Amino acid sequence: MMLRETASQTAGPYVHIGLALAAAGNPERDEEIWSEMAKPDASGEHIEIVGTVIDGNGDLVRDAFLEAWQADAEGHYQADYDLRKPFNSFGRTATIAEQGSEWSLKTIKPGAVAHPNGKLMAPHINLAIFARGVNIHLQTRLYFDDEVEANRECPVLSRVESDNRRQTLIAKREEAGGIIRYRFDIRLQGPGETIFFDF
User: What is a GO molecular function of this protein (predicted)?
Assistant: First the structure.
């Protein structure tokens, strides 16, 4: 007898139907945890993060779902989610085929966060990736290419010995129309595979 995967074991369309309603083509709820983590009155440097998810064949994953968790501009995580607040540490986004299979977040640049060893971790955003064929979500981090000194001193990032591998965690700064944007493409497998963490 062959046992098949259940809905709880695959990301498939289920994550989008429950958590990314607009991406699934469903009406949105009045209160939705989504990609705008920072409202215009949030303190800090307002930025946009954009990227794609690429599979082992080099093809775009058109239906990936991502969750983001980051500190505020002062380096503190906000544990209480409230849509009325100017900034929340938690957000969600998805790649949407009709939008070039890109995902995006509107947020603020996070501050440096204290590591348990007392040193400061470079500004970063934690990402969890859910996608077809990925039965257990993947976790990675996004660092910023214009934080060279902080990246060099970061007790987490500096543990990656290979500079080529370390570069898979670095988002590249772009500027378009006065918007500060960082591009971060996630490669699930193959050449240039993104580093994934086991927390």
Answer: ferric iron binding
| pLDDT score at 7 | 58
Q: Tell whether pTM > 0.85.
A: yes
- Structural domain that includes position 111: 15-26+40-187
**Per-residue pLDDT at 177 exceeds 90:** no
Please report whether residue 197 resides in a domain.
no
Considering the domain boundaries, does residue 161 fall inside one? yes
Residue 2 lies in a domain: no
Q: Are strands 103-108 and 46-51 parallel, antiparallel or unpaired?
A: antiparallel
Q: Is 91 inside any structural domain?
A: yes
Residue 67's nearest CA partner among 45, 98, 88 is 88
Residue with tokens 């209480």: 80
Gap between the Cα atoms of 197 and 199, Å rounded:
6
- CA 67, CA 61: separation in Å to the nearest integer? 16
Instruction: Quick: pLDDT tens for 16-70.
Output: 677 777 777 788 888 889 999 999 999 999 999 999 999 999 999 988 999 999 9
Question: CATH number, domain at 94?
Answer: 2.60.130.10
Q: Which range (1-5, 71-75, 80-84) has the least confidence?
A: 1-5
Number of domains into which the chain is organized: 1
